[in-house]
Design a protein that fits this description.
CATH architecture: 3-Layer(aba) Sandwich
CATH topology: Alkaline Phosphatase, subunit A
Number of helices: 13
Helix content: 25-40%
CATH class: Alpha Beta
């Protein structure tokens, strides 16, 4: 028996004895929509921690619209002649990407990327009048980093134990995958709420690979390490009398076997010809996602979500120096990942999207921008109806009809609407969308149309 087959069977045996897995299996049998044998789909969330000033990432580039933008942004405005032109199929007006994002502009003009305009945290449709009158329900603690990060990932934080919308999807669809024990949700950025469900937790892996136990190798050359490993294994197999001890031993053994199995499968993946950018933390994380996706068949995966992140977007100061570096890392990382998916032949099966705490203020604080509300997001992949801007581009005007104060633009499209569009493509039915996206029922448009 091959080592990986032994590990797989060991994991299955451990799972069979776990009360948590019994619950997972029951939920899966009841709820899962098992995809066809040749069907695979993955969602990759790129979370931009700190709040991306996306009104400088996608900019109106012509005529009165650019003049209004430059007037509002003052010292933060990107020069019109420096913008990289994009040509939306139907959206009125002319636009450009930040000069540090030529790769994003190429993806957009090649129909592989779309812009979701002015997305943000909303419980129900909100106007400036209703906001000022206080007669609508709003998410809690607007403009707070921690609270808005959690809201983006959960959409319902006003409960004792919130779950994330990718976690809720996995609760419904976990039965779609095989029995290796690998969670549908994999994070390259540590623990997160987005991938945490009632019966689902994300599997964490580093950009450099699986974290394994050190100093516990039964085949080590040193006698001391062999004895230590033998003692540890004896503890796991000693059949503890307490239920807690038995469950602890099962979890430990399952984790060890799963780590070994994933490490073996990643090692077996042939190197990609696609070169990810050096010195780019996002590129390193997306390179690991690409390797895991390449091992999808060996790991028995039909549905997966991945969570990666890029920090540093809280540009209260030095924005003109810092943001170009961040946008360049985002642009180069996404472009390389798109190429990798094409190389693997699954460009149509993997959809990548950005998320961020919030947008930022149109106004400058003298050296940067402050915490805002709505902002633009990107959706990338072969299944994306690209070369288009979805939703409504905001009116870039201080004290304008969409300014909630201090240049904080009120979103015109909810995170629930964007998420539900992605989830429909991922495999959720209409009835399940309202279960996963608690505010969706409050919006007349529930699918933004950016997925085929």
């Amino acid at each position: 028996m091959k080592r990986r087959e032994f590990l797989t069977r060991s994991i299955q045996a451990a799972l069979a004895g776990s009360s948590m897995t019994a619950t997972l299996g029951h939920l899966s049998l009841v709820n899962a929509m098992v995809p066809p044998a040749d069907d695979y789909r993955a969602l990759v969330c790129v979370f931009l921690f700190g709040g991306n000033d996306s009104y400088n990432m996608v900019v109106p580039s012509g005529g009165l619209e650019y003049e209004a933008y430059a007037d509002a942004r003052q010292s933060l405005a990107v020069a019109a002649e420096d913008l990289v032109s994009i040509n939306p199929l139907t959206t009125a007006g002319t636009f450009g990407f930040h000069p540090s994002a030529p790769e994003l502009a190429d993806l957009f003009n090649d129909n592989k990327l779309a812009v979701a305009a002015n997305i943000g945290a909303l419980v129900e449709p909100t106007s400036r009048t209703s906001f000022e009158n206080g007669n609508i329900e709003l998410p809690q603690q607007l403009f707070s980093h921690n609270d808005q990060q959690k809201y983006w990932q959960s959409l319902n934080t006003n409960v004792a134990k919130p779950t994330g919308w990718a976690g809720r999807m996995a609760d419904l669809l976990e039965g779609s995958n095989g029995e290796t024990g690998l969670s549908m949700n994999v994070t390259i950025a540590g623990s997160n709420l987005w991938q945490t469900g009632s019966a689902t937790l994300p599997y964490s892996i580093g950009a450099g690979g699986v974290q394994t136990l050190k100093g516990l190798n039964s085949a080590a050359s040193g006698e001391r390490e062999r004895r230590r490993a033998d003692a540890f294994n004896a503890m796991l197999t000693s059949s503890p009398t307490s239920a807690f001890g038995q469950e602890f031993a099962r979890v430990q053994q399952r984790s060890i076997n799963l780590a070994d199995l994933i490490a073996d499968q990643i090692a077996d993946v042939p190197p990609l010809e696609t070169q990810f950018p050096d010195g780019n933390p996002l590129g390193g994380s997306l390179s690991m996602v690409a390797r895991l996706i390449a091992a999808r068949e060996a790991l028995g995966m039909k549905r997966q979500t991945f969570f990666v992140s890029l920090g540093g977007w809280d540009t209260h100061s030095d924005q003109l120096e810092r943001q170009p570096i961040l946008i360049s890392r985002l642009s180069q990382g996404l472009h390389a990942f798109s190429q990798a998916m094409e190389e693997l032949g699954i460009g149509n099966e993997v959809t990548t999207f950005t998320a961020s705490d919030f947008g930022r203020t149109l106004t400058s604080n003298g050296d940067g921008s402050d915490h805002g509300w709505g902002g633009h997001q990107l959706i990338m992949g072969g299944a994306v109806n690209g070369k288009e801007i979805y939703g409504n581009m905001p009116i870039i005007e201080i004290e304008g009809p969409q300014d909630s104060g201090r240049g904080r633009i009120i979103p015109t499209t909810a995170i629930d609407q964007m998420g539900a569009t992605l989830a429909s493509w991922f495999g959720l039915g209409a009835s399940e969308l309202n279960e996963v996206f608690p505010n969706l029922k409050n919006f007349s448009i529930q699918n933004l149309g950016f997925m085929r």
